[in-house]
Amino acid sequence: MWNSVENGDKKILTINLLPKYCRKCGKPLAIRIGPYGGFLGCTGYPKCKFTFNLSDDNPIICPNCQSPLIVRKGQYGTFLGCTNYPRCEFLLDFKSRNRGRKY
Question: Residue 15: which pLDDT band, with cuts at 50, 70 and 90?
Fold first, then answer.
């Protein structure tokens, strides 16, 4: 697993520690939704089958309000959004240049 921050019994991933590129082939990762939940998958699929699970066991924390981020599907694609929405409008879109922007 990549870098994480210990918080009691759970490992918490922060945005700056979240992998952005595949550690096998170096291509960018994209947010995907599968039958078992959200994950980061290599954009080099099917040649590269690297994935990184986004699960409740390894929550990713919102840098604005410290709430967990979850995979959401919207009008413009899949993204990580804050569970504290609408009070916190933080989102992380791996396709966008403006990562971590507010709408």
Answer: low
Would the pLDDT of 3 be above 60? no
**Domain assignment of residue 69, given as a range:** 5-92
70 part of a folded domain:
yes
CB atoms within 10 A of CB 14: 14
Does some domain include residue 98?
no
The set of residues, in sequence order, having a beta carbon less than 8 Å from that of 50 and lying 6+ positions away, is 22, 23, 24, 25, 41, 42
Tell if the pTM clears 0.85, that is, is over it: no
Strands across the sheet with 68-74, in order? 5-7, 10-14, 60-61, 68-74, 77-82, 91-92
* Number of folded domains that form the chain: 1
